[in-house]
Amino acid sequence: MLLALLAGGCAPFARPALPPAPPPAPTVRELEVTATAYNSHPSQTAGDPKQTASGERLGPGVRALAVSDDLFESGLGFGARVEIEGLPGEWIVMDRMHSRWRRKIDVYLGSDLEAAKHFGKKRVRIRWQPPE
Predict the structure, then answer these.
(1) Is residue 124 assigned to a domain?
(2) How many angstroms from the chain centroid is the CA of residue 69?
(3) pLDDT band at 109 (very low <50, low <70, confident <90, very high)
(4) 42: exposed, middle or buried (C-beta count within 10 Å: 0-12, 13-18, 19+)?
(5) What is the tally of structural domains in the chain?
(6) Residue ranges in the chain assigned as alpha helix (H)
(7) Cα separation of 4 and 10, whole Å?
(8) Exposure pattern of 89-127 as b/e (b: 16+ CB <10 Å)?
(9) Does 41 reside within a domain?
(10) For residue range 59-79, what is the model confidence (pLDDT) as tens digits?
(11) pLDDT tens for residues 85-106?
(12) Percent of the chain with pLDDT over 70
């Protein structure tokens, strides 16, 4: 029997299968942008003031966000969930801004014109996970 083992007569040692590697964690992107606010008001839109470029309808309590074309093209597209420094909760990209803007977001504040004026224009940091 010892001779059979030395000559390789036994089945080779089977290694246990390794579990699959976990998928890599999504990379969180962070960027400083200029933020302003907009409303469902005819003077602030091109067309239906409650219709977004993504086809979604705006209404009370919707946390919608419009982004400049450069941000949209770099992965901050429709449906992306965004955290905005200084604002609670998540905001969802539902609209696009005019192509003249760069590194800019527009936060939807319903029909409250005073809230949009009070929000003003400011520099904020945003965080999001690009789609996989």
Answers:
(1) yes
(2) 14
(3) very high
(4) exposed
(5) 1
(6) 2-6, 69-73, 113-119
(7) 7
(8) eebbbbbbbeeebeebbbbbbbeeeeebeebeeeeeebe
(9) yes
(10) 888 999 999 999 998 889 999
(11) 999 999 999 999 888 999 999 9
(12) 85
CATH number at residue 57: 2.40.40.10
Residue 29 CB contacts under 8 Å (≥ 6 apart), including other chains: 75, 76, 127, 128, 129, 130
- 3-state class of 36 per DSSP? strand
**Residue 91 within any structural domain of the chain:** yes
Map tokens 């800019």 to a residue: 104
- Indicate the SS3 state at residue 4: helix
Residue with tokens 């705006």: 58
Query: Rounded distance, CA 12 to CA 33, Å?
Result: 61
Domain that holds residue 65: 29-128
CB atoms within 10 A of CB 45: 17
Residue 88 lies in a domain: yes
Residue tagged 């919608």 (tokens): 64
